[in-house]
Amino acid sequence: MRHNPPRRRRRRITMRKWNFCAGPAVISEEVLSEVQAELLEYKNFGTSIMEMSHRSEAYKKVASTAKDDLKDILEIPDTFEILFLQGGATYQFSMIPMNFKHLTGTADYITTGTWTKKAFIEGSKIMNLKEIHSSEDNNFTNAPNIEDLEISEKAAYVHYCPNETIQGNAIHKAPKINKPLVADMSSVILSEPLDVRNFSLIYAGAQKNIGPAGLTIVILNKEFMKEGNKNLPNLLRYSEHAKSDSMLNTPPTFSWYVAGKVFKWIKNKGGLRFFKEQNTLKASKLYKFIDNSDFYSNPVEIDNRSIMNIPFILRDNMLDSSFLKESGQNGLLNLKGHRSVGGMRASIYNAMPLEGVEELIKFMDYFESKYG
Ligand SMILES: Cc1ncc(COP(=O)(O)O)c(C=O)c1O
């Protein structure tokens, strides 16, 4: 039996450690190094990007290149609008019902974890929502096949979350339904190829696979967007944001700029096919290790397991604090599960390389051999 902590290889450029935070999350060192090199002076403009007007030609180029690259990566057709907004994914919990309430007065919501529960509660303050499914009785450890659910005839749209970040509960296949489909993709966007044509509106907070916090991406069908309530203040209207290229007011310029670098990095690595392969490999290695151990376990039904956020519990929760302390000492950061579920959670977004997951598994193996 081995009781020595795994030897940690010294990380590359700095003493950066493996960061398993659910968000704000790890950003690739290649991107951060480029940002660092340009921090004091962007190109030859004599100022940093943060000090530049969002109306300047130089910044407008940064903004439009980022949008074009995102369009390329996700193969977004011209029938869709791409918006770079603020307010986080949480803001969308209200903005969506505000824009589409007037259509029929009601919409269907599917609750599979903490975030969809919040979306339902917030949206219910604005319009009459119907929760057509909740996995709460099962502690959010499973998710339904949406195509099997009874969708309300009057629903203006159907809202769900393909990847519940806290519970690690996923719906892997986009359902085909005959209602506008709205999805919170905060923790799964850009992790694998996606056919946006299955959706009327997709939203995602940036701070996982896109870049720094402060930016929210909304991708929506232009026809659906046109149906939005015209009597709202401009800042609440998708179509007004679209008309002004997401510059109705000052956008989060720095986050948008870094997101643009992340998009280039994704393209250079080989796009979403590459990331799907890498993410599937990382997740399957970790799940396999967990499933083969009787010291660790993951409660989510196999078909609904996330490839981005992997919660696990220790057989004896009295060991949780030692696990967190020793994992931190071994260069593995932010493994604490969300306070609402306890245990541990490893978020393994695009910028977490396979090597980081292998180091985590080595540590878990060592910890089990010491305390198991
Ligand atoms: C799936 C999901 N939805 C919504 C949110 C809330 O995002 P924000 O903090 O950007 O409002 C999060 C945050 O982690 C999330 O993971």
Notes on the structure:
With 372 residues, the chain is an alpha/beta fold. Helices cover 36% and strands 15% of the residues. It is built from 10 helices and 14 strands. It has helices spanning 29-38, 57-74, 88-104, 114-124, 222-226, 238-243, 253-269, 271-291, 320-329, 354-371; strands spanning 18-19, 80-85, 106-111, 128-134, 158-160, 163-164, 169-170, 181-184, 201-205, 216-221, 296-297, 309-314, 332-333, 344-347. The chain has a 7-stranded mixed sheet. A 3-stranded antiparallel sheet has the order 11-12-14, with helices on one face. It has a two-stranded parallel ribbon with strand order 1-13. It binds pyridoxal-5'-phosphate. Pyridoxal-5'-phosphate binds next to helix 3.
Q: Which class best fits the helix and strand makeup? A: alpha/beta
Described by the principal axes of the CA atoms, the overall outline is: globular
Can you say what the CATH homologous superfamily of the largest domain is?
Type I PLP-dependent aspartate aminotransferase-like (Major domain)
Distance between the amino and carboxyl termini: 11 Å
Largest sheet: 7 strands, mixed
- Cofactors, ions, other ligands: pyridoxal-5'-phosphate
Q: Output the strand order for the largest sheet.
A: 2-10-9-8-5-3-4
Order of helices and strands: EHHEHEHEEEEEEEHHHHEEHEEH
Tally of individual helices: 10
From the 3D structure, determine the CATH topology of the largest domain. Answer: Aspartate Aminotransferase, domain 2
Radius of gyration: 21 Å
Q: Based on the coordinates given, report the CATH architecture of the largest domain.
A: 3-Layer(aba) Sandwich
The chain-level mean pLDDT equals 96
Number of strands: 14
Enumerate the spans where pLDDT stays under 50 for 5 or more consecutive residues: none
**Assembly level:** single chain
Q: How many domains, in number, for the residues?
A: 2
